[in-house]
């Protein structure tokens, strides 16, 4: 029977090891940025071998995307029984709450790096951002169906992006996530522009 203790160190496996690797990858991203992040540095920080990373992810890009996805809280399901504003507030509260829990999320650092790496940008948009924007667009489409928003033509990708952009901008300009009142004004702005 193989011992879980080797040279005085506990050998993590499965989900425990994966979480340690995710934490190491996000810490490396925050400390050195995407360009300097390596599989070697993540493995060292996680206290594991590089082979453990390559068994799960083929590249640092895949690893980082998995870590980012894992770090994001799930969005609430759309509730067809409430107003579009209430649905937007629920989604925006989760987004804002993520900033409140971690005042220096690596996702913000990554956002600035996306301008310099189009491949990474396209991958992050497809894997992380697109699903969140799609949910907001679905809320707005439902608002058209219920008459809360007047025109389907007004539902552009920019309308769905406005809420998350205002949440991040509020955080960047004040150092704090938006308050509940701020989120209400953001939801009203999105609905007014839709």
Automatic annotation (TrEMBL):
Q: Does the keyword Transcription regulation apply?
A: yes
For this UniProt record, the keywords arranged alphabetically read as follows: DNA-binding, Transcription, Transcription regulation
Top-level taxon of the source organism:
Bacteria
**DNA-binding region ranges:** 38-57
User: InterPro entries in the record, alphabetically?
Assistant: Homeodomain-like_sf (IPR009057), HTH-type_TetR-like_transc_reg (IPR050109), HTH_TetR (IPR001647), Tet_transcr_reg_TetR-rel_C_sf (IPR036271), TetR_C (IPR011075)
State the PROSITE patterns in the record. Answer: HTH_TETR_2
Stretches assigned to the HTH tetR-type domain: 15-75
Per its UniProt record, what SUPFAM superfamilies does this chain match?
Homeodomain-like, Tetracyclin repressor-like, C-terminal domain
Query: Is Transcription given among the entry's keywords?
Result: yes
Coiled-coil-forming residues are: none
- UniProt protein name: TetR/AcrR family transcriptional regulator
Q: Which organism is it from?
A: Fodinicola feengrottensis
> What lineage does UniProt assign to this protein's organism?
Bacteria, Bacillati, Actinomycetota, Actinomycetes, Mycobacteriales
